[in-house]
């Protein structure tokens, strides 16, 4: 946190509302604020070089959010919701075959008819256009790196990172001081495990009464497949192989328009075995006989990865703090059972905007939006998350077979009767505390990539268009290198080399001693290291604005 006295060192701009993150939540907030009062001044900061560059999701979108925000969106010929869901398949995979679960067995909330398969990157680009048409200022390429507070500790704005800092931490020839953007309220919608959200949750103890947040890592590829393998509107989910029955996760396969297929794999980050590699599990998954035929003769054209919040109902922290609020994935509104969260992100952005606009109209500023925090559990967001609140803890405690079966039963009971025999279960350990020493596990022998269905990390990162200027401070901060050697390597056998989906971390021999190497230029901003490091010894912070992946149609 930075005190207000430091603002004088920067140029500053004042707005009614400052929004961090041009994702579905942030852009929905901006649009709703302008719908309520066109005279409000609203700015959105986006760390990606363009809106959508850092956005990654499956994605199947429940239109409840966009219907509420822009009721006539279907009349816009440029809208990105081009592919309605036409078929919904659920598979259980074994090593050599699969079983499709009948749709009638699935709780109604798991169904996807009426939803749309989209590129969430394209959705945010479209939303940004709608926001700018209303007068919202959007600044892509500017990462918000500091929270600014007044003498009483209330949040009064954010500062963007300085540009042109060299690797040694000193200003270079192209140095430019960051800007201070001040607002009556600051809405934080920077996504899962955002750096500012982490600070605010800690500073204001927003998670004091909630369960620990739980996470997964989601990996995604975009393929162009042969027309005979393409089924527009098909949504397919699976669980089981290649994961063992103690490791949670599953897959998605979404057939978009134009012979495009999005394929992805999610691994819950509470896994115990430090030899698990989510990236390698994803590559193995594509070789399954029930999956591989889709990609025969096809071409992989995109790759990316990001963390997913999975804690749900009981892990959502207090959302409001003096001077602002958390929205979207910064708040943890993903419905893990439905494998979607953009609808709740939009709804939370709308809700926060309405309460912020009401406060500003009443002449208030920099106070706590208690009414927003009180409203979400009785809103559509709460109704969505409450029904699935026990799915994640049941899976974690009972494993895949028992957890999925009882989770399904619990969703049915919540849907039919509004009650659960389990009440509201606790999550227990954090994901980093779930990792066990390597001595308790066996190494996993992953097959070498064939370059046809399975690929290596570096060729995958190439498809993400990731770029970082090398002569800048490393944005993956290791607090204690000795601890990294003595614990991460010696006790846990270097899991960072496996949980990272981009080849950022390596242990290499230097003069006969292991050295921790950070290839920060490869980072796709998934933040898994910040979540899964067993000692919480790695801190992810934004690099210089605009750097990172440049996702296209993802």
In summary, what is this structure?
This protein is α+β, with helices and mostly antiparallel strands and 554 residues long. Helix content is 25%, strand content 24%.
Explain the layout of strands and helices:
Blueprint: E1 2-3, E2 12-20, H1 24-36, E3 42-46, E4 60-61, H2 64-69, E5 83-84, E6 87-93, E7 98-100, E8 116-117, H3 120-133, E9 137-140, E10 144-149, E11 155-160, E12 163-165, E13 171-176, E14 180-188, H4 195-203, E15 215-224, E16 234-240, E17 249-255, E18 260-268, H5 278-285, E19 299-309, E20 320-321, E21 324-326, H6 342-361, H7 370-375, H8 380-386, H9 391-417, H10 431-434, H11 457-463, E22 476-478, H12 481-489, H13 496-499, E23 505-510, E24 513-518, H14 528-532, E25 538-540
Parallel strand pairs: 1-10, 2-3, 2-14, 3-9, 6-16, 14-21
Antiparallel strand pairs: 4-8, 5-8, 6-7, 10-11, 11-14, 12-13, 15-18, 15-19, 16-17, 17-18, 20-21, 22-25, 23-24
Helix pairs in contact: 1-3, 1-6
Could you explain the architecture of this structure?
The protein has 554 residues and is an alpha+beta fold. Among the domains are: 2-70 and 122-210 and 317-386, FAD/NAD(P)-binding domain (3-Layer(bba) Sandwich); 391-423. Helix content is 25%, strand content 24%. The protein contains 14 helices and 25 strands. Strands 1, 2, 3, 9, 10, 11, 14, 20 and 21 form a nine-stranded mixed β-sheet that branches. The radius of gyration is 22 Å and the shape is globular.
Quickly list its features:
seven-stranded mixed sheet, 554 residues, disordered N terminus, nine-stranded mixed sheet
């Amino acid at each position: 946190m930075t005190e207000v006295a430091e603002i004088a060192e920067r140029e500053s701009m004042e707005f009614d509302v400052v929004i961090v993150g041009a994702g579905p939540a942030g852009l929905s907030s901006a649009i709703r604020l302008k719908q309520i009062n066109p005279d409000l001044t609203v700015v959105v900061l986006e760390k990606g070089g363009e809106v959508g560059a850092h956005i990654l999701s499956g994605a199947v979108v429940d239109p409840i959010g966009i219907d509420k925000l822009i009721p006539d969106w279907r009349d816009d010929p440029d809208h990105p919701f081009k592919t309605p869901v036409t078929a919904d398949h659920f598979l259980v995979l074994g090593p050599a075959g699969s079983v499709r679960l009948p749709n009638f067995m699935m709780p109604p909330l798991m169904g996807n008819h009426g939803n749309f398969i989209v590129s969430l990157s394209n959705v945010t680009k479209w939303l940004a256009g709608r926001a700018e048409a209303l007068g919202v200022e959007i600044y892509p390429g500017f990462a918000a790196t500091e929270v600014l507070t007044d003498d009483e500790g209330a949040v009064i704005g954010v500062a963007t990172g300085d540009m042109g800092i060299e690797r040694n931490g000193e200003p270079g020839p192209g140095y430019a001081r960051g800007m201070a953007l001040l607002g009556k309220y600051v809405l934080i919608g920077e996504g899962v495990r955002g750096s500012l959200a982490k600070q605010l949750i800690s500073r204001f103890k927003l998670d004091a009464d909630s369960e620990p947040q739980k996470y997964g890592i989601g990996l995604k590829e975009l393929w162009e497949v042969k027309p005979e393998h393409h089924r527009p509107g098909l949504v397919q989910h699976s669980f089981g192989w290649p994961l063992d029955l103690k490791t949670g996760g599953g897959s998605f396969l979404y057939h978009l328009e134009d012979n495009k297929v999005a394929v992805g794999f999610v691994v819950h980050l509470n896994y115990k075995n430090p030899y698990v590699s989510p990236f390698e599990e994803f590559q193995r998954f594509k070789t399954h006989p029930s999956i591989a035929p889709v990609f025969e003769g096809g071409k992989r054209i995109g790759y990316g990865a990001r963390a997913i919040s999975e804690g749900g109902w009981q892990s959502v922290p207090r959302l409001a703090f003096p001077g602002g609020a958390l929205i979207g994935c910064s708040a943890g509104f993903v419905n893990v059972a439905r494998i979607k969260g953009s609808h709740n992100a939009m709804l939370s952005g709308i809700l926060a905007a309405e309460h912020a606009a009401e406060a500003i109209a009443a002449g208030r500023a920099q106070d706590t939006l208690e009414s927003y925090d009180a409203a979400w559990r009785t809103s559509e967001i709460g109704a969505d998350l409450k029904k699935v609140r026990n799915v994640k803890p049941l899976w974690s405690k009972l494993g895949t077979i028992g957890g999925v079966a009882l989770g399904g039963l619990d969703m049915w009971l919540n849907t039919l009767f509004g009650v659960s025999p389990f009440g509201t279960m606790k999550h227990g350990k954090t994901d980093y505390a779930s990792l066990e020493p390597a001595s308790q596990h066996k190494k996993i022998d992953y097959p070498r990539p064939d370059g046809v269905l399975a690929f290596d990390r570096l060729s995958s990162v190439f498809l993400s268009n990731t770029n970082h200027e090398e002569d800048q401070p490393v944005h993956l901060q290791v607090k204690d290198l000795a601890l990294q050697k003595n614990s991460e390597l010696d006790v846990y056998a270097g899991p960072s080399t496996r949980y990272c989906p981009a080849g950022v971390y390596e242990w290499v021999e230097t003069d006969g001693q292991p050295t921790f190497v950070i290839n920060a230029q490869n980072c796709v901003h998934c933040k898994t290291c910040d979540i899964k490091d067993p000692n919480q010894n790695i801190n992810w912070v934004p690099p210089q604005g605009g750097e990172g992946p440049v996702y296209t149609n993802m």
